[in-house]
Write a structure and sequence with these properties.
This protein has 258 residues and is an alpha+beta fold. Helix content is 62%, strand content 15%.
Amino acid sequence: MRTSWTLFTLAGLPIRAHLSVVLLVVYMLMTVGSLGWGIYLAAVLLVSILLHELAHTAVAVAFGGRVASIELQALGGAAMISRLPPKAWQETLMAVAGPASSLALSAATFAGGVALGREVFDPYSGGWVFEPNLYLWIAAFLNLGLGCFNLIPAYPMDGGRVVRSALECFGMGKLQATTVAVRLGQGIAVLWAGLWGLSFLGVEVPCPRVLTGFGAYLWELVFGVRSWLMPLIAYMIWVVGRRELAYVRATTAMGAWR
């Protein structure tokens, strides 16, 4: 069964959408309760994911890597890298490029939101208060969440890839470094699955006090009571990490790595 389709080609690179993107749009519509806002959130998130993966791609190609395509998915994106950069430190830069681009875009949209903000009258306080541009403010929070979330050291997320390549930089072999990164990621996956189970007993992951408004909404979207994203992310980390470890084992045994 076909599960992804090519949306367009960018500089010869196919940009594909996975079937799960439809689930993302539906989920946004259900949680927001507004057709317009649901479509806007889904569109901003997909564009942010695309820019995130393009950053990975640009660094990979700059260091001699090869990327076959980019696929947009409900739980993020994936640059289908057919050949990694030859050096471990180059792979580290490639992994960091995605979150760095998301955080940079977050800072830019935060600044734009402030620049395009306006003074509005607050009937509760009886005074005028500054209100940033809501559309840019939401885009800023989405990119901030995307950048920070991907830095979690759970392979195959970017943070986990940084752990693996960093271990290689310190002299560890590819197989051993991958094993450590995958086991760390699987430990985090088990923790997330456990927190999801505890949510049915009323035990919640508390939202940081610094997060308010849309930032608090994003936190609840991922870590809220009985959020279906937590078990899906845990499952993805476990399965993809296990597949990657099996691939590295096979290529190491055949002497085909790098």
